[in-house]
Amino acid sequence: MRSLSDILEEYAFLDGDDRYGLLIELGRELEPMPQALKTDATLVRGCSAAVWVYPAGADSDKLHFLADSNAAITKGIVALVIAAVQDKPAAEVAQMDVMAALEPFQLKNQLSSNRTQGVPNMIALVKEHAARLAA
């Protein structure tokens, strides 16, 4: 997975339609999530599309998440959130302002509100998992 800074560098040079294309591409690049993990327990509440996030690693030194969505653009947004936290120490993610890390992407200006409404819930889920491991 590309780093968030690498993604932002590319994103900054694109216009609206090409940004959508990049988001779709990022979603396709997510590590595959097995169908068996797409359950009610891994479903993120409050998203307009179905979004699943599964903490694949229980190591506080290196968090790892599997994630998926049934909508292409939403899956790209999921990929941005995962890129911000993937393979980082739990203590770092627990203290991280993920929304601030995503702010340069100006998602609220680029996408409809129903495409981004579940992002805070997904971030909360990731941070809660990180906090549990960091404790």
Report on this model:
The protein is mostly helical and 135 residues long. The protein has a single domain (4-134), classed as Alpha-Beta Complex (Sufe protein. Chain: A). It has helices at 4-12, 16-29, 72-85, 90-95, 98-102, 107-110, 113-116, 119-134; strands spanning 51-55, 65-69. It has a two-stranded antiparallel sheet with strand order 1-2. Helix 2 (16-29) packs across helix 3 and helix 3 packs parallel to helix 8. The mean pLDDT is 91.
Identify the notable features of this structure and list them briefly.
135 residues; Sufe protein. Chain: A; two-stranded antiparallel ribbon; 8 helices; globular; Fe-S_metab-assoc_dom; Fe-S metabolism protein SufE
Write the layout of secondary structure elements.
Layout: H1 4-12, H2 16-29, E1 51-55, E2 65-69, H3 72-85, H4 90-95, H5 98-102, H6 107-110, H7 113-116, H8 119-134
Antiparallel strand pairs: 1-2
In short:
With 135 residues, this protein is mainly alpha-helical. Helices cover 53% and strands 7% of the residues. It has a single domain (4-134), classed as Sufe protein. Chain: A, CATH 3.90.1010.
Instruction: State the shape.
Output: globular
Let me know the number of strands: 2
Radius of gyration: 14 Å
The figure for the number of domains is 1
CATH class: Alpha Beta
- Contiguous helical run count: 8
Mean pLDDT: 91
Give the CA-CA distance, first to last residue: 27 Å
What share of residues is helical?
40-55%
CATH topology: Sufe protein. Chain: A
Protein name: Fe-S metabolism protein SufE
Domain Fe-S metabolism associated: 13-128
Family: Belongs to the SufE family.
